[in-house]
Design a protein that fits this description.
- The chain is an alpha+beta fold.
- The protein folds into 2 domains: about 150 residues, NAD(P)-binding Rossmann-like Domain (Rossmann fold), CATH 3.40.50.720; about 160 residues, Sandwich (Jelly Rolls).
- Helix content is about 25%, strand content about 20%.
- It is built from 8 helices and 17 strands.
- A 6-stranded antiparallel beta sheet has the order 6-15-12-17-10-7. It has a 5-stranded parallel beta sheet with strand order 1-2-3-4-5, with helices on both faces. It has a 4-stranded antiparallel beta sheet with strand order 11-16-13-14, with no helix packed on it.
- Helix 1 links the parallel strand 1 and strand 2.
- Helix 2 packs parallel to helix 3.
- The protein is elongated, with a radius of gyration of 22 Å.
- The protein starts with a strand and ends in a 7-residue tail after the last strand.
Length: about 350
């Protein structure tokens, strides 16, 4: 399933771009997510996408219900979103496969001044997932935030690990999602633009590291504060010494001309670690403050990442790096009789192009 989304510089469009299998043109896609508000351009793009026979998800606004604004004589935003909603209705009634998702406030830069509760970008992706997998046609949906903040739904152990990190909203998704496997991968993105890394070299370098350094909690640091410390910074973010952040781990613990160093430098990651997941092992469910980059050094057909709905995803050891959205609850499972080995680090904040 290939997606095209407009408005990828920031906000919801950037969030979607970082996580879905996004192509660079409307003509290439299967699904067009009509995201960017720019006057009446969304309306024009909607007509164009329908002419091309594309499945369309229009990001509308709850403001289209309130075109009168008591403080603004010229409330053009609401009129433009109302036009998008009406165009969607017209095309839908004429048989086109288009849906308008009318949203209240999202937690984004443009509404930082709004103090009321807001919806997360992930909740929007979950709702797009629900629309695309629904067995019937969906004309439009309006969703607004709850008036009060949701209580954290994690148990005490997970809350202790993640501290004050916000819990992403969830929606109940029907069982037929299990037949729609391409959407499960919306948190995994293979980064082909960097090419393939030589896994034979990487494995040889890993063997030398494992011979020279003992694993602590099945991990070794590949970057550190001084280029010499192989253990400070392993395991949970909450265990990093006070006053130090993940980006501070940026000095290589490996030779600069190694294949591992090339991967770390190319991807711009920090706090890179060697992770060994032993046979018949599973991590606890957790989530991270930022996304991660993985290079699969060694794996097997029975090794998976899993989310809180127990949807499984397998990353092959083919030499390509992976962008992984680990800001949602997840775990890793190795149900084989051999170790799974990854190199993993903190992804840069800017998206890869």
């Amino acid at each position: 399933m290939k997606f095209y989304v407009n408005g990828t510089r920031r906000g919801l469009g950037k969030y979607i771009y970082d996580r879905l299998n996004v192509v660079e043109s409307l003509e290439e896609c299967d699904v067009f997510i009509n995201c960017k508000h720019d006057g009446f351009l969304q309306v024009d793009l909607l007509y164009k996408a329908c002419e091309l026979g594309k499945r369309v998800i229009n990001i509308g606004s709850y403001a289209s219900d309130w075109i009168f604004h008591p403080q603004q004589k010229k409330y053009t935003y609401a009129i433009e979103k109302k036009a998008l909603r009406d165009a969607n209705s017209q095309l839908f009634d004429n048989g086109y496969n288009t849906t308008c998702l009318n949203l209240g406030y999202l937690d984004s830069e443009s509404v930082e001044h709004i103090t009321s509760n807001k919806m997360t970008h992930r909740s929007v992706v979950n709702n797009i997932e629900w629309i695309l997998t629904h067995p019937h046609r969906v004309k439009e949906i309006t969703i607004t935030p709850n008036e009060s903040k949701k209580e954290n739904k994690y148990n005490d152990q997970v809350v202790k690990e993640i501290g004050t990190l916000a819990y992403d909203e969830r929606i109940t998704i029907s069982d037929n999602l299990r037949d729609y496997s391409t959407m499960y991968a919306n948190c995994y993105k293979q980064l082909h633009q960097f090419g393939q890394y030589d896994l034979e070299k990487v494995r040889a370098e890993v063997a030398v590291l494992l011979e020279a350094h003992e694993l602590h909690d099945n991990q070794i640091m590949l970057q550190s504060l001084d280029g010499k410390d192989f253990y400070t910074g392993i395991t949970q973010v909450s265990k990093i010494p006070e006053g130090i952040v993940e980006n501070d781990f940026d000095k290589l613990n490996v030779h600069e001309d190694s294949e591992i160093a090339r991967f770390i430098n190319d991807l711009g990651i920090t706090r890179a670690r060697l992770l060994v997941l032993p046979e018949k092992t599973c991590y606890t469910f957790h989530f991270d403050p930022t996304s991660r980059i993985h290079l699969v050094v060694k794996t097997n057909e029975w090794a998976f990442m899993a989310d809180e709905k127990w949807r499984l995803f397998h990353m092959p050891d083919d030499g390509y790096p992976w962008y992984v959205d680990t800001t949602y609850p997840h775990t890793a499972i190795n149900s084989a009789l051999e170790d799974r080995i990854h190199i993993m680090g903190r992804a840069p904040q800017k998206p890869y192009k």
